[in-house]
């Protein structure tokens, strides 16, 4: 990743983390969507956790996942499904940060990944076992 790309990514992650700190984590529906999205991606990638999924993605798989998240995010925005788009943005930023060299990105992504892991755990604990993923 170029230094310019890392700067852009860090700015986007910082904006999302600020919003999460101020509002996002208190929005149960958005956190449910985040957990559901992470669960769907983990199941698709046959990984038990978000960290395990990220650690096993090849460069090609990372790009494919980012493209899929982008398509689904744009569709959610077009349907005015703001909370689903928000959750997809968080997942996408986490995946986009794989391999980043910046210590600031690594720290911010670690915090974001902790939130994703918590949302995933809560989704798996509380969601109906027969429910279809929201992606």
What's the layout of helices and strands?
Layout: H1 3-22, H2 28-44, H3 50-56, H4 59-78, H5 82-96, H6 103-126
Helix pairs in contact: 1-5, 1-6, 2-5, 2-6, 4-5, 5-6
Q: Could you please describe the fold and organization of this structure?
A:
- The protein has helices at residues 3-22, 28-44, 50-56, 59-78, 82-96, 103-126.
- The protein is mainly α and 135 residues long.
- Helix 5 (82-96) packs across helix 6.
- Low-pLDDT ranges: none
The gyration radius over C-alpha positions equals 14 Å
Structural classification: mainly alpha
Helix content: over 70%
Global outline: globular
**Mean pLDDT over all positions:** 90
Give the DSSP E fraction (strand runs of 2 or more residues).
under 5%
- The H-and-E topology, N to C, reads as HHHHHH
Strand runs, count: 0
Distance between the termini: 28 Å
- Tell me about the largest β-sheet: none
| Alpha plus pi helix count | 6
Using brief descriptors, characterize the structure shown.
single chain; mainly alpha
Offer a quick outline of the entry.
The chain has 135 residues and is mainly alpha-helical. The protein contains six helices and no strands.
